[in-house]
Amino acid sequence: MAAIGFRNSYAARHPLTGVLVNLLLLLAVALLALGLKLPLVSVEKFYVFGNTVSLLSAISQLWQEQERGLALLLGGFSVVFPVIKLLLLFLVWNLEDSSSNRHQRHLRWLATYSKWSMLDVFVVALLVVTVKLGALAQAQVEFGLYAFAASVILTMLVSAWIGRYTA
Q1: In this structure, are residues 5 and 103 in contact, taking their beta carbons and an 8 Å threshold?
Q2: How far, in Å, CA of 139 to CA of 127, rounded?
Q3: Alpha-carbon distance 20 to 11, whole Å?
Q4: Of 23, 101, 141, 155, most Cβ neighbours within 10 A?
Q5: Alpha-carbon distance 72 to 20, whole Å?
Q6: Which residues partner with 54 through β-bridges?
Q7: Which tens digit of pLDDT belongs to each residue from 3-60?
């Protein structure tokens, strides 16, 4: 069984690309953090009442309102899954021996589950469209949604870029 180490990683074998990929992964992490914490949507009802919603506050509110299944689903796809994907990309690029069985298993996992990356952005977009269709409420997209979507898209691009080296 091969040990985890930098010496036989893709980053070690491709130093310039390794630095660039790591910078992009760090940017994706920063955008994800902003996307989770900053407001995604501002909703105004009856032109008087307003509310801003971040992804983390929405999950918390769903949990408090006993909508635990929906909170777990949204939390899983919007928080847990992107964090695990970013960690695995970092691990595959920087620390794993490319000939190990663990490495191949991580690559298969990334290839299989990368297809679900835009599901959470799609759900938020549906929420915005639904609110905008209502005659009594207005929804304004906030920076958090753009940061979150940028993180997902950047993660997908970095994943594809790493995939070119692992093929």
Answers
A1: no
A2: 9
A3: 10
A4: 155
A5: 34
A6: 39
A7: 455 666 777 787 888 899 999 999 999 999 999 999 987 877 766 677 788 888 888 9
Task: Report pLDDT for 2.
Answer: 45
Dig out the tokens for 12 from the structure.
């070690």
The residue-averaged pLDDT of 77-101 equals 83
Q: Which amino acid is at 66?
A: Q
Neighbours of 6 (CB within 10 A): 12
Whole-number pLDDT of residue 81: 86
Q: For residues 79 and 4, give the distance between their C-alpha atoms in angstroms, rounded to a whole number.
A: 26
- pLDDT given at position 131: 55
DSSP for 56-84? Answer: HHHHHHHHHTT-HHHHHHHHIIIIIHHHH
Q: Which whole-number Å values give the CA distances from 155 to 27, 54, 89, 115, in the listed order?
A: 9, 20, 9, 12
Closest CA to 60 of 79, 47, 32: 79
List b or e across 13-46, with b for residues whose CB sees 16 or more CB atoms inside 10 angstroms: eeeebbeebbebbeebbebbebbbebbbbebbee
